[in-house]
Design brief:
Organism: Jeongeupia chitinilytica
Largest sheet: none
Order of helices and strands: HHHHH
Region (Disordered): 149-171
Structural class: mainly alpha
Distance between the termini: 67 Å
Protein name: Phasin domain-containing protein
Number of strands: 0
Number of helices: 5
Helix content: over 70%
Amino acid sequence: MSFYESITAAVPPAFQNPVTQRLDSLGQLCSQSVSRQWNNGLTAAAALPSLATPDTLYEAWALQLAVWQRLQKQGEQWWNGLAAIGAERGELRRANTLSKFFEQEYNLYAQFGELVSGQFTNLLELMDNIQVDYGYWIAQKVHAAHAATEARPHDGVSSTRTRKPAVENAA
C-alpha cells in the first residue's frame, strides 16, 4: 500500500471531499493505463525478436494501419466541427442587446467545448483500445510461440540414451 493510499484509507469516507475522490479515481485510472502500456512494451521487447515472422509483421502493420485510419477519421471530424462552428459564427446576426450578444457568444464557446471534449474522449478511448487490443494480440503471439516451442523436440537433448557413451564404445 502506498503512502497516499494509507492516508486516504485512514480518513473516514464522510470527510473525503468528492473532488478528492474524483482525483483519486483519475490517479488510479492513469496508473492502470501506464501499467498496461509498460507491460505491453516489455512483453513486445522480450517476445517480438523471436516472433519476427512475415505474418507477425503483417499483423502488427495491420494494427498500426487501423490506428492511423481512426486518427485520420478523428482529424476529419475535428476540422468539420471547427468549420461548422466557423460557419455558424459567420451567420450570426448583429445582436440588439447585450444579453443576446453574450447568448450567441456563449453558444459558440459551448459548441467548441463540446467539440474538444468529444475529441479528447475519443482519443482516450482509442488509447485504451490500442492498449487492450495490442496486449491481447501480443499475449496470443507469446502463447502460440511457447506452445510451439514445447511441442517440438529439443535438438541435441534426448530423454533416453540409445547409444552407449563414447568411452564404453572404445573398449
